[in-house]
Each structure stands twice: as C-alpha cells, then as structure tokens.
C-alpha cells in the first residue's frame, strides 16, 4: 500500500513538472472603425469596418520544453470580421496561421502547416503595410507583393534560423499535394535580414506556380490568391534606420507574372476581378515611409508609394499616400485616425481604376478614404 501511494505521489510530481515546462497563450487583436470613402463604385460611402489597419484575430500559441534547448511549438490563429462575426480567409477556422514544429536554441525552428511566406517574414516589417503603422489600406495596389498577407501558404514546411549576431535567414516550401502534378500550385520562398544597432536591412524572394483554385484547389495558394497566373515571382529589398524617436525606411519590390489571366478577389476584398489576356505582367513598387513618436503614447506615421505597372499592353502608374496618427490609451488599447489617397493613370482600356486595399474599387482613377478606429490587444 505504501509503495502504491509512493508511486502515485511520484507520478503526480512528474506530471506537475511536465505541466510547469509547457505553456499555452491565448492572444488576439480587435480593430474596429468607421470609414469614409469618396468613391466606391461611383458613390460616397460611410461604413463600419473591421481591420482597416490590422486584421482582427484571435489565436493560441504554445510551447513544450523537451530539454536541451529543444521545444515543441504550435500556433493556431483565426481571422474574423468584428462587425458581423464572420470568419475571414475564405471561412477557414484557423486561416491566418496553423502550424506545429520544433524550435532549437542552436539550430532554429522547423514548422509545418499554413504559414507566412519569406517576403512577409523578412521584408514585411520594413514596409508600412502589414504593420500597425499603416496596415491594410496602406498596401501596394492589389497587395501585389503580399506584404499585407492577403494570402498564406498551405501545405508548407518552413525553416527559420536563430539570430547570428543580428543576421537571420529562412525559407519555405508549399506542396501542391497533387499526385499527378508536383509543381501545380506549389510555392517556395527565401529571405534574410540583418540588424546592426539602428540599421535594419532585408531581402526576400517568392515564387508561385499556378496559384489559385482553377487547376488545384488543395494546393499551396488557392481561393485567396491575388493573381491567376502560370507563374508569379516576387522579390524585393529594404532598409530602415532609427534615430531617436524617429524611423525612416525604403522598400523596393517587384512582382512578375507569366501567363496572367486575372487579378482575383483577394482576401482583402479589394477587387471583384479583372481579366487579363494571358500574357506577362509586372508591378514595381517603391515605398518611402517614416514614423515619429511625438510622445511615448502618441505616434505619427506615413508612406508614399509609386507603383509602375505593365499589363495588357498598358503601363498604369499608381501614386499612393497614407498618413496615420495613433494615441495609446494603455499598453493594449489605442485609437487612430488614418487617411489614404490613391491615384492611377495611363490605364487605357484595361478597366483598372483606383482601389485602396480592403475597399471596393472606385469608378474613377482616384480614391480617398479616412478611418477613425480603435484597436485592442489581448
């Protein structure tokens, strides 16, 4: 009897120790606002919006210490619309992120699931779009370089290195999962970044083959693909420099399409679809951005992006300005005011009009939006 009680006590101690070495965190962000747009389909609009800057989401993040600097890790993250409660990312339960893997203090992390590509991981933090300082509406036209995370990569295996004196690198491969077409709707990307005091630099490359649901709906990038094309190649580089309460940055990206047949309705809902002639297309983006902390609680940020395009025999050019001011009521809650102006020219008969990311397209070559919003993090 004493032996049984002793064994039970030891088992309870071991279970308690194992529990102490594991952790699960519930987290999230809610972004709700009121947006005025001067032209959506030919009419003025005043609407309640979700995720004008940062997409509303909640998630679970966990880690288990396996000993020797090795951990089992996972993330499950759900996107939703706070105004109507609907799931985002095409109705997926964990459409923003869903992965599991191993993380080592010495060797880096290897994860499997639905994940961000290397353009988002390494170059994304240097742009205003995709961050708290510009977000959704500051994205480059159609989010053509995916810096605002319009799509994630399913069926993916990702490696991310540890930090080697400020240098980090990684790569991702998304499987097509098609037994008869290994390359049909696959994706791969690589990226690297370096931090030296106030200086940050990064570069990345991504390629998609036959993205979209037309040929293989269970592939790497399906119903949330930005473009329908035989091949999409996106590459870019950027830098930022911090001096005191200010930061200035520059980002260059280019997206090249082969066999392009359309600009689809992305996850952000920017456009209802534009048909292309099946030839090549190109989007080259130049972004200059900056932000300044007026006080520890009050920030000001802005960006200018020039996009040089080529598609369907025309060479459209976009000029876009974004400006945001945010005031922190606490460490987790802030209010913001953001304005975005976009103008597109030289569109010919392509059917392209101004279309600020996350909003319905204008009926003209210009569009203005102003959003007053609130964000809460938990």
Automatic annotation (TrEMBL):
Q: What GO MF terms are annotated?
A: porin activity
Q: Which GO terms describe its biological process?
A: monoatomic ion transmembrane transport
Q: What is this protein called?
A: Outer membrane porin
Asked if the keyword RNA-binding belongs to this entry, the reply reads no
Classification from the root reads: Bacteria, Pseudomonadati, Pseudomonadota, Betaproteobacteria, Burkholderiales
**Which species does the entry assign this protein to?**
Caballeronia pedi
Porin domain: residues covered: 7-346
Query: Pfam families under this entry?
Result: Porin_4
Membrane topology according to the record: Multi-pass membrane protein
InterPro entries linked to this entry: Gram-neg_bact_OMP, Gram_neg_porin_domain, Porin_dom_sf, Porin_Gram-ve
């Amino acid at each position: 009897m004493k032996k049984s009680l002793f064994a039970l006590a030891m088992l309870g101690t071991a279970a308690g120790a194992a529990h102490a070495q594991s952790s699960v965190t519930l987290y999230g962000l809610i972004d709700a606002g009121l947006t005025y747009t001067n032209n959506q389909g030919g009419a003025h609009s005043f609407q309640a919006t979700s995720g004008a800057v940062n997409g509303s989401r909640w998630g679970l993040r966990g880690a288990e210490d396996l000993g020797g600097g090795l951990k089992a890790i996972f993330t499950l993250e759900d996107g939703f619309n706070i105004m109507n409660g609907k799931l985002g990312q095409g109705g997926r339960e964990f459409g923003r992120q869903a992965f599991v893997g191993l993380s080592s203090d010495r060797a880096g992390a290897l994860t499997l699931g639905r994940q961000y590509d290397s353009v988002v991981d390494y170059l994304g933090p240097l742009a205003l779009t995709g961050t708290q300082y510009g977000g959704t509406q500051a994205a480059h036209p159609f989010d053509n370089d995916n810096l605002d995370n319009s799509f994630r990569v399913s069926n993916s295996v990702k490696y991310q290195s540890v930090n080697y004196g400020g240098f980090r690198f990684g790569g991702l491969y998304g499987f097509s999962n098609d037994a008869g077409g290994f390359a049909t709707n696959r994706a791969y990307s690589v990226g690297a970044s370096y931090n030296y005091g106030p200086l940050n630099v990064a570069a990345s490359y991504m390629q998609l083959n036959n993205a979209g649901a037309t040929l293989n709906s269970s592939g790497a990038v399906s119903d949330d693909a930005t473009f329908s094309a035989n091949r999409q190649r996106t590459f870019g580089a950027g830098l930022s420099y911090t001096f005191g309460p200010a930061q200035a940055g520059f980002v260059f990206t280019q997206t090249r399409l082969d066999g392009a047949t359309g600009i689809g309705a992305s996850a952000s809902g920017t456009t209802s679809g534009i048909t292309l002639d099946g030839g090549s297309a190109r989007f080259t983006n130049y972004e200059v951005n900056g932000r300044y902390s007026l006080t520890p609680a009050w920030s000001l940020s802005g960006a200018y992006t020039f996009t040089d395009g080529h598609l369907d025999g025309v060479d459209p050019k976009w000029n876009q300005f974004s400006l945001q001011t945010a005031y922190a009521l606490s460490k987790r809650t802030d209010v913001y005011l953001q304005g975005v102006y976009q103008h597109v020219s030289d569109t010919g008969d392509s059917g392209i009009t101004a279309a600020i990311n996350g909003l319905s397209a204008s009926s003209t070559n210009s569009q203005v939006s102003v959003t007053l919003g609130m964000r809460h993090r938990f």
